Amino acid sequence: MSGLVHPPLARLIRQDVQSMHAYAIQDSAGMVKLDAMENPFGLPPDLQQALGERLGRLALNRYPDGRVNELRAALAQYAGMPAGHDIMLGNGSDELISLLAMACDVPGASILAPLPGFVMYAMSAQLQGLAFHGVPLTADFELDEAAMLAAIAEHKPSLVYLAYPNNPTGNLWDDAAIEKIIEAQGAQGGLVVMDEAYQPYASKSYIDRLTTHSHVLLMRTLSKFGLAGVRLGYMIGPKALIAEIDKVRPPYNISVLNYECALFALEHAEVFARQAAILREERTRLQRELAALPGVHPYPSEANMILVRVPDAAKAFDGLKAHKVLVKNISKMHPLLANCLRLTVGTTQENQQLLHALGHSL
Questions:
Q1: Does 151 lie in the same domain as 96?
Q2: Within this chain, do residues 326 and 342 fall inside the same structural domain, yes or no?
Q3: Last residue of one domain, picked from the residues 221, 252, 267
Q4: Which of the pair, 11 or 306, is modelled with greater confidence?
Q5: What radius of gyration, in Å, describes the C-alpha atoms of the chain?
Q6: Using CA atoms, how far apart are residues 139 and 289, in angstroms rounded to an integer?
Q7: Which of 235, 267, 299 is the endpoint of a domain?
């Protein structure tokens, strides 16, 4: 069968959508999977059994009920949500990003973010028909404060995304620069979204400063917490603002399985906190040993990934794959990322396999 849509039907699909590429997921069968910033640890056997029994008792024949609000309350407590704020749930952060673009789609609206950054910021704008303005980071992946302020003044974006820490670079940006950007965006009447997807691995959070601005939203996900398969993101912001954005959320967007898994995980948060602590230690060791490899430059990271520059990214990627280690070749994502690979921090054994394979692949 041809890969082309029948012409009379093709005219029904937006031209820009037809020119897009679907989000690609690499085949990881039989590989050490270090390409998607997942927590490599599964649930301990006793918790697996307890969760299985709990999920088996759910009323799968019914739509999700008010218990989803118990999850909202549990997440608010876990995150330390300040007074006067509310919390909104999404099917992963991806859905929240899409809903923000939908809610803010007024005439002349646009979205602005530093580049390289999370691809969904630009994609959500494109799918909603909004302009997207990308502002390059500096050569060492810091915010270009002057360029960001100039872009805000010129474009007056509805939304500015600041990932804290950033994907794919893994770093936390300068707090003073962030504050100036937030103040400039507020002064021209726009929103700022602080995306803390990698918060379990970072040394700082913006949550303590959230009350200082009424135009800042904070977004997190349970994917990096350790529940990537559950697909659950959440966003915290001033009550009135969250109430408006929540109006575009589809009904029952969080399944009973999703919210029960998330509630269960929060009841055992100490298990996931120990896992995150192990991964932070492994990150430090991995950075040190990567730096000892000839021609390899690892960048500082506050996430569960490490950005590395190698002499030849394509050769290194293919060599790693031949050794059954799967990473992400992001060298063509942005000019600043030339010859860069993004490596997920795995278990001690997985990281050893990575180092061994990379050493043979350079």
A1: yes
A2: yes
A3: 267
A4: 306
A5: 21
A6: 23
A7: 267
Rounded (10°) angle between helices 256-267 and 45-56:
140
Nearest residue to 343 (alpha-carbon basis) of 299, 302, 307, 295: 307
Neighbours of 12 (CB within 10 A): 7
Asked if residue 148 and residue 104 are part of one domain, the reply reads yes
**Tokens representing residue 331 in the block:** 């060298």
Beta strand spans in the chain (E): 32-33, 85-90, 110-115, 131-136, 159-163, 191-195, 216-221, 233-238, 297-298, 305-309, 325-326, 328-329, 340-344
pTM: 0.94
Q: Is residue 36 part of a domain?
A: yes
Report the share of the chain in percent with pLDDT over 70: 99
Q: To the nearest whole number, what is the mean pLDDT of the chain?
A: 95
Q: What is the CATH number of the domain that holds 205?
A: 3.40.640.10
Q: How high is the pLDDT of residue 184?
A: 98
Looking at the 3D structure of the chain, how many domains does it have?
A: 2
185 part of a folded domain: yes
Cβ pair 298, 284 in contact under 8 A = no
Q: Which residues contact 12 (CB under 8 A, 6 or more apart)?
A: none
pLDDT confidence of 336, banded at 50, 70, 90? Answer: very high
Q: 237: domain range?
A: 63-267
Burial (Cβ within 10 Å: 0-12, 13-18, ≥19) of residue 3? exposed
pLDDT at 28: 81
Q: Do 137 and 252 sit in the same domain of this protein? A: yes
Looking at the structure, tell me whether residues 201 and 95 fall in a common domain: yes
Name the packing angle between helices 92-103 and 119-128 (round to 10°).
Answer: 40
